[in-house]
Amino acid sequence: MHAASDFLIRAGQRFGAAFGAALWLALFASPVPAAPPQPPLQLQTAQQSGSIGKYAAPGEAALPGICMEILRAVERVDPGLRFVGLERRAPLRRIERMLAQGDLDVFFCLLKTPERAQQWRYLPVPLYRVRHMVVQRIDDAQVLRSTADLIASGLKKPVLVSQGTVLQQGLARAGVVTAEAPSEREALQMLLLGRTDAVYGQDVNLLRNLRESGLGDKLRLSPTVFLEDLQYATVGRQLPADAEQRLTQALQALERDGTLKAIADKYNR
Which stretch is the leader sequence (predicted)? Predict the structure, then answer.
């Protein structure tokens, strides 16, 4: 070892420090082992029905939905990960029951509330930001600028929200009279028929439904943002910690390389 060191010192003096350093690395540096591939892992999930912005049924829309695209991006960044059960489509309330009962391992995407966090776990990476907004008829002159305006509108006709969402709970706590529709698409049809004067929802879903339904010349998205919130991936409490960590790492990679933002931008146009 001493002889090798003396040789390197002499080589460095003769040929320069750069040569000596390179020779030292060639002789003594250990190769960095490649990270082993992740083992195959299948996780049970499902699609949410009635929410075209998150999961579009085949033939229902030109884009598959923001949550479906995020799910597929996770599979691409971790090729050993596969989500199964996507042939199942269920309304949000049933999705929540399945998640709470352990029938689903993971679900993309849900808003976070203290009540929900007691039933399942939320992964720490925000998937995308949503804005709570309303759709009105184009010929409706009233401007809804605040929760007080929503309260006043609801006293005339209930403000419509999609069935099973936590948005209705928030409006009820604020004193807004609401009614539920099976989906945003049906809520917009009821708005067009005069059953309500406002449909309250998330901008991603409302924009998709306005565009896909062809009602953009009769209905308008009001500019007021009543609240901003974040959507997350959730996992059942039965999911092992290593699987949860693997999902989190995949989402963190998608956050770092800008994929999550790019998907969200596509659905906010």
Answer: 1-34
